[in-house]
Amino acid sequence: MDLGIAGRKAIVCASSKGLGRACARALAEAGCAIVLNGRDPEALARTGRELREATGVKVGEILGDLDDPATREELIAACPDADILVNNNGGPPFKPFAEITHDDILKGVESNMLTPIALVQALAPGMAERKFGRIVNITSSSVRAPIAGLDVSSGARAGLTAFLASAARLYARHNVTINSIQPGSFATDRQKSGLARTAATRGVSVDQARSESQARIPAGRFGDPAEFGALCAFLASAQGGFITGQNILIDGGAFPGAF
Sheet containing 59-63: which strands, arranged edge to edge? Predict the structure, then answer.
């Protein structure tokens, strides 16, 4: 399927690995020029090199933490006329509710709510003027079904979702869409670290923790990041112009709801 976005320009945040990288790869395969971002210089350079070799598209790399306004300014300067923005950022670490501090909450809100909002505010008006824009926010299935220990992440990402709900309707008439994808359990480094923590806490092997976690998912497995990237690319496509203000769950059926 031709997604109709060859030659478009995309900024993909936190894209040196994991789900962000998968989104960058899918968009590059669709013919988009990509601006990558990450905090690990080796991982960022490796992803940039791999995308260029695999797809032949133009790939830029902006090193830095998105919570730093200077990094965001550099990212925007690298692609001020972006057609596609994929908002992604590292989530707060697992922490029991009783141990969460005021500073933890502020940091989580900064990373997972205020930072993506700042990028949307900077880029959406230009998209509207050019009559094409696709904004995809990577949030979490915990927005829909909160997970104990990830309270800060759930709260901040839910705040982002609610905050942008009206903006999605505001920009729709200009062919600019704003949606979020809510990932469940995917085979990423973050998932591996979570399994290691669970195994250590319970005194079981990582393999056992993995098997038990997969068994709780109706699909019987973790998601492949490429599946996530494909969904992101479709939302960014020309054909995705009538989908906006939506929060799309991709979790192998783990959320037990009818709607």
Answer: 59-63, 33-38, 9-12, 84-87, 133-138, 176-183, 247-250
CB neighbour class for 162 (10 Å; exposed up to 12, middle 13-18, buried from 19): exposed
Q: What are the extents of the domains in the chain?
A: 9-184+228-248, 187-222
Q: What is the CATH number of domain 9-184+228-248?
A: 3.40.50.720
pLDDT in tens, 42-73: 999 999 999 999 999 999 999 999 999 999 99
In 7-116, DSSP assigns E strands to 9-12, 33-38, 59-63, 84-87
- What whole-number distance in Å separates Cα of residue 253 and Cα of residue 258? 10
- Whether the CB-CB separation of 161 and 139 falls below 8 Å is answered with yes
Q: Is the pTM of this model over 0.85?
A: yes
CB within 8 A of 16, min separation 6: which ones? 36, 37, 38, 39, 40, 43, 44, 46, 47
CA pair distance 224, 216, nearest whole angstrom: 16
Residue holding tokens 């350079």?
Answer: 45
pLDDT tens profile 2-16: 999 999 999 999 999
Measured between alpha carbons, how far is 83 from 123 in angstroms, rounded to an integer? 9
Residue length, the chain? 259
- CA-based torsion, 250, 141, 255, 243: positive or negative: negative
Which residues contact residue 151 at a Cβ distance below 8 angstroms, ignoring those fewer than 6 apart? 95, 97, 100
Place of tokens 């942008």: 164
Residue 176's nearest CA partner among 207, 119, 139, 130 is 130
SS3 153: helix
Task: Return d(Cα 87, Cα 139) in angstroms, integer.
Answer: 9
Rounded to 5 degrees, φ, ψ at 234 are -65, -45
